[in-house]
Amino acid sequence: MSEEKKIAIKKIQATGFLRKIMADYFYELNDAAKEDSPKIAWCSSVGPAELLLSLGFLVHYPENHGAVLGSSRTANDYIPVANAVGYSPDICSYLTSDVGAFIKKETPLSRAYEGIEGIAKPDVLVYNTNQCRDVQDWFNWYSRELGVPAIGISTYRNIGKITDSHLQGIVQQTKDLIPPLEKISGNKFDIDKFRSVLSLSKDCTLMWKKVLEANAAIPAPISFFDATIHMGPAVVLRGSPQAVEYYKVLLKELEEKNAKKDGAVEGEKFRIYWEGMPIWGKLRNLAEFFIGFKTAVVASTYCNSWIFDSFDPEDPFMSMARAYTEIFIVRDENFKEKYIEEMVRKYKLDGILFHDAKTCPNNSNNRYGMPERLEKKLNIPSLTINGDLNDLRCYSEEQAKTNIEAFIEQLETK
Amino acid sequence: MNYFVGIDVGASTTKAVIIDEEKKVLGYSLTYSGADFKAAAEQVFEESQKKARRKEPAKFVVATGYGRRNVPFADKSRTEISCHARGSFFYFPHAHTLIDIGGQDNKIIKVNDSGKRTGFKMNRKCAAGTGAFLEEMANRLQIKIEKLNGLAEKSERDIQIGSYCTVFSATEILTRIREGVEIKDLVKGIFGSVIKRALEMDPLEGNIVMSGGVVAYNPFLVSMFEKKLGKKIFIPPHPQLTGAFGAALYALEAKGG
Questions:
Q1: What pLDDT, in 10s, does the model give residues A267-280?
Q2: How far is A405 from chain B (nearest CA, A)?
Q3: Which of A75, A77, A215, B56 could form a disulfide with A390 if both were Cys (CB 3.0 to 4.6 A apart)?
Q4: Chain B residues with CB-CB distance to A under 8 A?
Q5: Average pLDDT over residues A352-377
Q6: Looking at chain B, which runs of residues are DSSP E strands?
């Protein structure tokens, strides 16, 4: 067999709208930085963004920038720069690529958006360690570098059943953020504003959930690889009406596709779960590769991680604490295992792919025997591929693709 | 008479196997893959054609291995994981675990009683425990790779080489050399390291089959492995050709032979 034939990824019409609202978001931040108003907060992606928005901050998410560095395949220009100043190649490659880009004073955003010269500088850095310790270390680097305060929430980890005692502490930590944030923003905290932002966030997140659930249909209308791009507004624009509007448009398109049985993968034969981080620099490449084998990557923990069912404007502090504690990454192995089991059933999946991301242990769930346990329990095969979210030095394309191809050959004989 | 071809373009060597409709091997050949996979594939195909005394075109050709997409005359490609499983099951038609130690990677493949693959694993990114590891170590010790087996056989000591990184292993070997350890003992320690890497990949329960070039040229490594597992390890005839043979079986199957 000679070269693989050219494969076209089906277009999603809503992408134009997505590009516009993302561009508006970046330009708004850029303008604010130039005019020093409104104030800018940098926030971890599953952090207390709603509180910041209610206080009038515009919010930049360094993790989103990390993903931009990965998907633009510039991360490997910057990771060594951070390595060289003492940030190990073994720690989060979002952190190292983002810090490296900052040191070099470069961003792919300036190539994508004319007039944007750099990342909008923060007035405050606000983290939540629910995802990992690296966000705190990351923000502390900027805090030292820019002389800006880094404040945040330290959560429990590996939680099974969530109890009131878990949440009370988080509620208190969230409330403790208010006085310094009021001072920096120059705005008084307004509970009604907070409720209203949380309500918009909830609407966004529920619409995003519906978008993902549209993939329960056979064939699935959107691939995991596309979904990682379309989740942008759920990450950076939740709490805004634009995000809600966007997902209404996207959902309508996917429902129309479902009515026509127009799948993302023509002739869909197999349905796979993607567990772990995306390999940002290989999204298109892998999307085409799976299409070539008529295999749809239908659902993922990653995209589901921006569903916050528990947001309740009636009880904003407690419900926000609950929502940001319920997410997969904060939970114990038993919870995670049951969660994936449920996904396999809900989306009628044939196999599970675990991405063991070298620099992201908290998002690599193959390391404590879960693939073996799930294979036994669900009687479906799993595959683990080695790679990384951003650091392509950790990804062997040939080995990964041979593994995926062999995995699909195995599904064919089942 | 119709014949069917399997070409396995591996990281280190390229192999061809020709079989007839009765699955009998008519000819085979192997060469180093080098930098031109296409040329290597053509060479082994022509050589095995000569050995099989066939001039007419093959009925069907299946390519496998790292360079499976670089064989322009192949009708189809399949991964080496499928082909090794198929080749191994032909000789051992019962549930088993196949350990293939190739040039660039180790594969552990499980097949059930009907020959279906139920799972597989490949080594992690590092080449420790693979053929490339042995080549690197032989190079460090300034001995020819084909001498390794004979040297290890003569050793009566157990030297531990523990690292799972090839570079770290090389450093460990330097330390042992400094300590005055004899070459034969080092080589046995290196074989032990290959076995450890495989043991880390899977519990290796049930019947075990081994294939690949490392097994073909180093029977003493297999006997060390048997001792470690406390059971017999089955080896197919021409263990280095298992993948190419499996590919030839797929070629036959594709034509309904």
A1: 999 999 999 999 99
A2: 7
A3: A75
A4: 63, 66, 68-72, 74-82, 105, 116-122, 124-125
A5: 97
A6: 4-9, 13-19, 25-32, 60-64, 76-77, 96-101, 106-111, 117-122, 208-211, 233-234
Give the ipTM: 0.91
Cβ separation B105–A399 shorter than 8 A: yes
Range of the domain at B19: 4-82+240-254
How high is the mean pLDDT of chain B?
93
Asked whether the predicted pLDDT for residue A3 surpasses 50, the reply is no
Count other C-beta atoms under 10 Å from residue B180's C-beta: 6
> What is the CB neighbour count within 10 angstroms for residue B236?
23
The pLDDT confidence band at residue B249, using thresholds 50, 70 and 90, is very high
Interface test with A, best of B71, B112, B122, B253 (most A CBs within 10 A): B122
Establish if A412 touches chain B: CB-CB under 8 angstroms: no
Q: For residue A135, what are the CA distances in angstroms to A138, A215, A230?
A: 5, 31, 23
Residue B97 sits in the same domain as residue B149: yes
- Tell me if B66 and A402 make a contact (CB, 8 A cut-off): yes
Task: Domain count for chain B, please give it.
Answer: 2
Mean pLDDT of B181-209: 94
- By C-alpha distance, the chain B residue nearest A381 is B119
Cα-Cα-Cα-Cα torsion A67, A70, A73, A79, nearest 10 degrees, comes to 130
Domain that holds residue A325: 15-412
- Give the pLDDT mean for A358-382: 96
Whether the CB of A375 is below 8 Å from some CB of chain B: the reply is: yes
Nearest CA in chain A to B203: A372
Least CA distance to A358: which residue of chain B?
Answer: B125
pLDDT at A247 over 70: yes
Domain of B74, CATH number, reads: 3.30.420.40
pLDDT greater than 60 at residue A4:
no
Beta carbons of A3 and B69 less than 8 Å apart = yes
**Residue A405 to residue B79, Cβ atoms within 8 A:** yes
Mean pLDDT of chain A: 96
Does residue B88 form part of some domain? no
Q: Predicted confidence band at A1 (pLDDT cuts at 50, 70, 90)?
A: very low
Report the domain count for chain A: 1
